[in-house]
Amino acid sequence: MTDARPAGYRRSTGSPRGEARRRELLEAVTDDLAANGLAGFSLRRAARAAGTTHKVLLYHFDGAEDLLRQAVQQLRARRIGKGMAAAAEVSAGRPLAERVRALWPVLTGTEAMVLHQAMGLAMYDPDRYAELARGATTQYLPGLMSLCPEDWTERRKAEVAGMILATLRGFLLHSLLGGDAPDSSVDAGFDALARALDREEAAAE
């Protein structure tokens, strides 16, 4: 990911037409990222995926790392949107644990490995890739807070959402790494999480 903006290149001015084109390019690059992962990512690979040239991408994005950061954020936003849609299918008034469990099939979808690769890069080389992870928590928390009972305080929602996010991240990492009976371990973990969430709901009544 060494492609950088040569001197003389300028950013898209943000006109409606330019912004629409930028979104179109970003969607295509995000599709490629979801399918092929981070390994070997470059402006030229992104340009092939978007059906354009790397010079066009440099007009709209500030180099390969900026494009990668935005594509990772877009991929994460897609995942959150699908997760919230899955949770919304659980009838209102059902236990919070059931709504959280509905997220799991989405979290283990095709984006999971790519987003973990991004987090790994951010930890391995924070000087270059910290932006791939920065903001991840703030992207996830609003959706998780929205699953909590409406009559909870914002502080309580934030605390419980933070617990849910940290727990699901642990489950997902365990599942991705494999090991002894990862599915059984995750199932047992969900049972424990459900009991914790049930206690939170009971305490708030």
What can you tell me about this protein's structure?
With 205 residues, this protein is an all-alpha fold. It has one domain (16-204): Orthogonal Bundle (Tetracycline Repressor, domain 2), CATH 1.10.357.10. Helix content is 74%, strand content 0%. It contains eleven helices and no strands. It has helices at 16-36, 43-50, 54-60, 64-88, 96-101, 104-107, 111-124, 126-133, 136-147, 154-177, 182-204. Helix 2 crosses helix 3 (54-60). The radius of gyration is 19 Å and the shape is elongated. The termini are far apart. 22% of the residues are buried. Residues 6-10 have low confidence and may be disordered. It comes from Streptomyces coryli. Keywords: DNA-binding.
CATH architecture: Orthogonal Bundle
Distance between the termini: 52 Å
What's the CATH superfamily, by name? Answer: Tetracycline Repressor, domain 2
Q: What is the total domain count?
A: 1
Mean pLDDT: 86
For this structure, the CATH topology is Tetracycline Repressor, domain 2
- Unreliably modeled segments: 6-10
Concise structural overview:
Keywords: DNA-binding. It contains 11 helices and no strands. With about 200 residues, the chain is mostly helical.
